[in-house]
Design brief:
alpha+beta, three-stranded antiparallel beta sheet, 14 strands
C-alpha cells in the first residue's frame, strides 16, 4: 500500500474511519468467530492425543436453526404478516401491500438470482444470533429478461437450411431482451460493515469484493465508477485472508484460491466527510475507494430520494451505549464446548473401563501363538504341563474409568446451556415430550416469554418494519409504471388509474410519507404459543382427581369450548374434527365400552374404588373423570 502522502484527502479520511471502526470491533469479531466455529461443529482439539475422543455436540447449531426456522415459519404461514396504513385516501392500503409483497417475493441477489423475503430473514436471524447484528442493504438492481416470441420469417441464428426444406410461413423463434427493475435486500456480513464507533452515525462503510471485470463493467459513462481511475488499479490478486474467513464461515476446511481470479477490494462510504480540522467537507454523500488507495467514485450526493442510509441494522440482544451490542450465542458457545469436553471424557472413560488391557503369561501357555492376534471371547487357551492350576494365564487390567460425578456435572452444564438459550418445548408453544406440572409451565412461560418478546420486537419493529419502509420508498423512486405483467390482476382499476396519472416524484411525495407498515406475523405466532401455554396450565389445574376446580369447571364452563381453543392454538380447525349430524355410531360404541370399563374399575383406577362417570354433555362437562382424560392429565393420582 502506498504512503498516505500519495493519497487524496478523501481516501485518507475513509481509510482512517475504517481503521477506527475495525479497532473498536476486535473483541466482537473474535467472539463472533468462536460462535461460527461452534455453529459449524469445530473446536480446538490440539491438546488431545490421537487415541482420545473429540466429540462435538451440535447444541449451538441446533438452537440457531430452531429459532431461525420459527421466525421464518411466522412469515410464511400467515398471509397477512404485515399490514400497511396510509392516511391519504389516494389508494387503498391493500394495494400497497400487494405491490410490496410482489417485490418481496422476487428479491434480486447480487449474483442475479432471486430470493423470497422470509428466506433472507431466516439467514439474517442466524447472523444476528451468532454475530450480534442483523444488517441489510435496501436498494434496487436491473435484471435482463429474455422474451421469446414466434415470428414468420428468417431463421433466428442464421442457420443454413436447404431451399427445398424452406417454407414461406415457417415459424421462427426470436429472442428479445428487456431490462426490468427489481428490489434488492442484501444481507450484509458484519465483518464487512464498519459503523461509526462513537454511535453518532457519522458514517457507515461497506466493504465489498468484486472481480476486476465486474468493476470495469460498472465504470464508464453510464456507470457509477470513474473508468480512468479503474484502469489504474493494480495488485488485484485474491485476498487470501478474506478467502480463509469465507471458508470458515461456510464450514469448509480451507479456502479454494484461484490465483487467476483478479479481485478488487472496494470500501463503499456513506455519510459525512470531515477534514483534518474536523470541519464538514461533504455531507450525506456516497464514495468508493478501491484497494485502499484508488478513489474510483468521488463523493456525490446520496442517490436515494429518502436521503437516508440504505442500511438497516438491528441487534437481537441490546447492550446500552454499545454499537455492536451482544450476540445471543455468546454465553452458549463456551457451555457447548464444555459439554464437548465432558462427553469426550465420559466416552474415553467408558472405553478404557470396558476394554482395558489384557495381560497374558506366555511362559505358562502350551502354545503362545494362540494369542498372537489377541484374545477374543470364547477362545480356549492350553496350559503347559506342570503349571499350577491356580496360576492365572490371562488377566485384565483397567486403564481408567468414568470419573465419579462426571454425569452429574454434565447434567448441570446441560441445564446451564438450556437456561442460557432459554430453550425448552414450551418456549416455542410445542407440547412437551414428558408430563409437566402447571408450575413448570408457568415458570417456563415467565422465564422465556419476556426475553423472546423483546427479541421478536427487535426483529419486527427495528428490523423488518424499517426494511419494509425503505423498500416502499425505493420502489416509488424507481418504478416507472405499474402497468406491467408482474402486477397483472393485482391492482384494482381505480388505484391503477391514480398511480398512472402521477409521476414518480408525485407518487413519492404523496405515498412515501403517509404510509406506515406494521409487522405482526412473528409476535402473533408468539402470542399463539403463549395462549397454548395458558390453556395447558388451565387443563393442568382442572384435570386433577377430586379437584375442587374440576368440579367448579364442570358446573360453569365447557370442556368442548376449551378443547376447541387448544386446537385453534395448534393451528387446527375444530370443525375438521366435528362429528357429522346424527353422530358416529362406531365412536359412540367405543366410548360406551370405555366408560363401562372405567365404571367397573378399569383404566388406572383401583378395583372397588370406581366412581360414577358424569355424562352431562348438555352442561359442557367432560364425559369422564378429568384425571382419566389423557389430554388433561397433569400428574398421576395419589
Amino acid at each position: 500500500m502506498a504512503h498516505d502522502s500519495t493519497l487524496s484527502q478523501n481516501v485518507r479520511t475513509i481509510n482512517q474511519y475504517r481503521k477506527a471502526s475495525a479497532r473498536d470491533r476486535r473483541t466482537r469479531m473474535w467472539a463472533s468467530r468462536m460462535n461460527w466455529e461452534a455453529f459449524h461443529g469445530k473446536q480446538d482439539w490440539s491438546h488431545k492425543t490421537p487415541t482420545q475422543s473429540a466429540e462435538f455436540m451440535p447444541r449451538v447449531s441446533r438452537t440457531t436453526h430452531r429459532i431461525a426456522a420459527t421466525i421464518k415459519r411466522s412469515l410464511i404461514q400467515p398471509s397477512d404478516w404485515f399490514t400497511a396504513e396510509i392516511r391519504t385516501k389516494e389508494i387503498e392500503p391493500e394495494t400497497i401491500e400487494k405491490i410490496l409483497r410482489c417485490f418481496l417475493d422476487h428479491l434480486l441477489l447480487p449474483n442475479g438470482t432471486t430470493e423470497k423475503f422470509p428466506v433472507m430473514i431466516e439467514d439474517a436471524v442466524k447472523v444476528g444470533l451468532l454475530s450480534s447484528l442483523m444488517i441489510c442493504k435496501v436498494l434496487g438492481r436491473m435484471k435482463t429478461k429474455l422474451n421469446f416470441n414466434v415470428e414468420r420469417g428468417a431463421e433466428l441464428f442464421g442457420l443454413e437450411i436447404p431451399i427445398e426444406e424452406a417454407e414461406e410461413d415457417r415459424a421462427v423463434l426470436t429472442v428479445s431482451e428487456e431490462k426490468i427493475w427489481h428490489l434488492s435486500v442484501d444481507l450484509i456480513n458484519p465483518r464487512h460493515y464498519y459503523p461509526d464507533p462513537t454511535g453518532r452515525s457519522l458514517y457507515e462503510i461497506h466493504r465489498v469484493f468484486r472481480d476486476i471485470s465486474e468493476v470495469k463493467e460498472m465504470a464508464g459513462p453510464d456507470g457509477i465508477y470513474d473508468s480512468s481511475v479503474v484502469d489504474q488499479i493494480e495488485d488485484s490478486r485474491p485476498n487470501q485472508e478474506e478467502q480463509s474467513r469465507r471458508a470458515e464461515e461456510a464450514g469448509k476446511d480451507g479456502p479454494e484460491i484461484n490465483s487467476d481470479r483478479f479481485e478488487v477490494v472496494i470500501d463503499e462510504f456513506w455519510g459525512t466527510l470531515l477534514n483534518e480540522k474536523g470541519d464538514v467537507v461533504e455531507k450525506n454523500v456516497v464514495a468508493a475507494v478501491a484497494n485502499e488507495k484508488y478513489e474510483i467514485r468521488k463523493p456525490e450526493q446520496n442517490p436515494f430520494w429518502h436521503q437516508e442510509s440504505p442500511f438497516v441494522v438491528s441487534p437481537l440482544v441490546r447492550i446500552p451505549f454499545d454499537v455492536w451490542h451482544r450476540a445471543f450465542m455468546d454465553d452458549a458457545t463456551p457451555l457447548n464446548k464444555t459439554l464437548n469436553e465432558l462427553i469426550s471424557l465420559i466416552l474415553d472413560g467408558g472405553v478404557r473401563e470396558a476394554l482395558g488391557v489384557t495381560e497374558v503369561d506366555t511362559d505358562a501357555m502350551f502354545d503362545a501363538r494362540q494369542v498372537s492376534g489377541g484374545v477374543m471371547p470364547g477362545d480356549s487357551l492350553a496350559r503347559k504341563p506342570g503349571i499350577p492350576a491356580n496360576q492365572r494365564i490371562i488377566s485384565h487390567e483397567e486403564l481408567g474409568r468414568v470419573p465419579s460425578g462426571t454425569i452429574a456435572v454434565f447434567g448441570m452444564i446441560d441445564s446451564e446451556f438450556q437456561q442460557a438459550t432459554l430453550q425448552n418445548d414450551l418456549s416455542f408453544g410445542q407440547l412437551p415430550g414428558k408430563q409437566v406440572l402447571a408450575t413448570e409451565i408457568a415458570d417456563a412461560r415467565n422465564e422465556a416469554t419476556d426475553f423472546f418478546s423483546s427479541m421478536v420486537q427487535s426483529i419486527e419493529l427495528d428490523f423488518i418494519q424499517n426494511i419494509l419502509t425503505k423498500s416502499w420508498k425505493v420502489i416509488l423512486q424507481h418504478v416507472d409504471t405499474f402497468i406491467a405483467p408482474m402486477f397483472a390482476g393485482m391492482i384494482n382499476r381505480k388505484d391503477l388509474i391514480v398511480l398512472e396519472n402521477m409521476s414518480r416524484e408525485e407518487r413519492f411525495a404523496t405515498l412515501s410519507q403517509e404510509c406506515v407498515f406494521k409487522v405482526r406475523g412473528i409476535s402473533a405466532n408468539l402470542e399463539r404459543a403463549q395462549t397454548l401455554q395458558k390453556l395447558m396450565t388451565v387443563l393442568q389445574l382442572v384435570g386433577q382427581r377430586d379437584s375442587v376446580l374440576s368440579q367448579v369447571w364442570a358446573k360453569k364452563y365447557s370442556y368442548d369450548k376449551m378443547f376447541s381453543r387448544v386446537l385453534r392454538a395448534l393451528r387446527l380447525d375444530p370443525e375438521d374434527f366435528r362429528l357429522p349430524e346424527g353422530g358416529d355410531q362406531d365412536q359412540e360404541q367405543v366410548m360406551n365400552t370405555f366408560l363401562q370399563s372405567v365404571e367397573r374399575g378399569g383404566g388406572d383406577r383401583q378395583a372397588g374404588n370406581a366412581k360414577p362417570i358424569p355424562t352431562n354433555g348438555a352442561s359442557g362437562a367432560s364425559p369422564f373423570e378429568p384425571s382419566d382424560d389423557f389430554a388433561m392429565r397433569g400428574q398421576e393420582p395419589q
